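User: Second chain of the day. Same drill as before.
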Amino acid sequence: MGKLDGKTAVVTGATSGLALASAKSFADEGAHVFITGRRKETLDEAVATIGHNVTGVQADSASLADLDRLFELVKREKGAIDVLFASAGHAEAAPLGAITEELFDRIFDLNTRGTLFTVQKALPLLTRGASVLLTGSMSSVKGWPGASVYSASKAALRSFARTWLVELKDRDIRVNVLSPGAIDTPAMEANGPEAKQFYEAMIPRGQMGRSSEIATAALFLASGDSSFVNGIELFVDGGVGQI
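Assistant: Same format as last time:
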């Protein structure tokens, strides 16, 4: 038996990296998983990677119309959601003095506003005892130069979780934040070898995290294994956020 047998999960922004690995883990553990992505080609590739128990939905989590279309499809095909992993996000750097209105809007529209409305629009479908996961970031508790807007957009999710778990307690819905550190993903590779060396120098074990290590933590929070875990921010960052 799988840890999520018979469950329905929704994972946004799951076309690569840690979200894709998490969605695959959910499917392997018995859930039917709906994944979203903005580009059809990468979405189709992600569906093929997962291979079973998966439905791909082309959607932008910053678009409320796309979110409506996503959850209408989930309702029509499955009727309810047991696990919601709001993982769609965007990272972009600019130091104070060079932050533009457009950069601020791009980051907050997806990371913060998009997360809020993903959860709110899913509410009618969430089962009693459902698990809601929000993708935070280790950077929300660190002071990286140039990352103030991104870090703030992720720090807001910690506040969301604290409030929402109280608002949803009568339905036994748990809300937790999963905050990765530096993970060896295609997006990280695109930053070049210098960025990888920079992050690895800060990690006690000297190696970046793997998407599979995030997926293991996501499965824990999604499943009944974490039935008494609510409102936490789980850092999966090799210890960087604590030193």
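The beta strands are 8-11, 32-37, 54-58, 81-86, 126-135, 174-180, 233-236.

User: Great, on to the next one.
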